[in-house]
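Lest this sound abstract, we think one record worth quoting, the chain in one-letter code, the fold tokenised, each line plainly labelled:

>
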Amino acid sequence: MNVDFDFVENALRKATFGTLSTLTELGAPHATGVVFAVSSPGEPLALFVTTRTSTRKVQNLRAHSDVAFVAPVPHRFVPMFPPRVIQFMGTATVVSDDDEQANRAFAGSWFLRRILATERRIVSEGGDLCFIRIRPERTLFTYAMGMSLLDILRRPRGAIGRVKIPEARQ
């Protein structure tokens, strides 16, 4: 199924949980579940994760900036069916807790504001708050986006897709 960037970006904005894969100092893969926020519309596409400077993912990013990211997009009415997926490769950097773009992204919903407030409370007990800025490469890869469950079952190979990020959003 052909879907465009706006469709995929809208689905990404509705998601809040994904898997961030980084590389350790020795180049071994390390994956962790994260809550994320998406940059404001019109800004270059980026995902932001709030964390602490003492975490393994931050240590890994200081050694290797290459990442992979997977965001499941559950089916609303059939949650037991495998989710649709948005995934990409990209690079990530650690940015300070006062980064304007990251704070705007986390201000976008009540849930994300609660997550950030919780992180700030945890950090007040020890550690330094920071954000991870994740920038996708030029292509977002998808599975089952824009397809009905019946179409996915009938044509699973047709569920594989890719969407180019517009130049203005890279």
Remarks:
- The helical segments are 5-14, 56-63, 100-106, 110-124, 149-154.
- The longest strand covers residues 84-96.
- Residues 5-165 form a domain with the Pnp Oxidase; Chain A fold (CATH 2.30.110.10).
